[in-house]
Amino acid sequence: MNAETFLEARNISKRFYAVQALENVSVMVKRGEIHALVGENGAGKSTLGKIISGIIRPDSGQLLVGGRAVSFSAPRDALVNSITTISQEISLSGKQTVLQNILLGQEVSRAGILNFGAMQARFEEVRALSGFNIDPNRRVDSLRMADQKKVEVMQAIARNARLIIMDEPTAMLSDEETSTFLKIVRQLKSMGLTIIYVSHFLREVLDLADTVTVMRNGQVVRTAPTKDETLDSLVTAMLGKTMAQMYPPKHPPPSDNPIVFKVERLSSAVFDNINLEIRAGEIVGLAGLVGSGRSRLARTLFGAEAVTGGSVTVHGKPVALRSVGEAIRNGIYMLPESRKEQGLLLKQSVQLNMTLPHLSDVTGIGGVINTRAELGRIAGMIKSLDIRTGSAATRLNNLSGGNQQKVLFGKWLFKRPHILIIDEPTRGIDVGAKQAIYNLIATLAQEGMAILMVSSEIEEILGLSHRVLVMRLGRIVAELPSSGQDMTETNIMSAAFGTGQAARQDG
Amino acid sequence: MNLFKRTSPQPRKWSTFLLDYGVLIAFIALFMFLSIRAEAFLTVRNQLNILDQAHQIGLMALAATVVIIAGGFDLSMGAIFAISGVVAAFVARDLGQIESFAAIAPQLGWIVGIVVGTLFGLLNGILVTVLHINTFVATLASGIVIRGIALIITQAEQIRVSDDVFQSLARGGIGDIRNTIIYWLGLAVILTFLLTRTRYGRYVFASGDNPEAARLSGINVNLVRTIAFGISGFAAGLSGVISASRFLKAQNDMGQGLELIAIASVVIGGTSIMGGEGAIWRTVLGVLFLRLIENGFNLINVDTYYQDVFQGLIILFAVALDAMRHRRQ
Question: What pTM was computed for the model?
Answer without folding.
Answer: 0.80
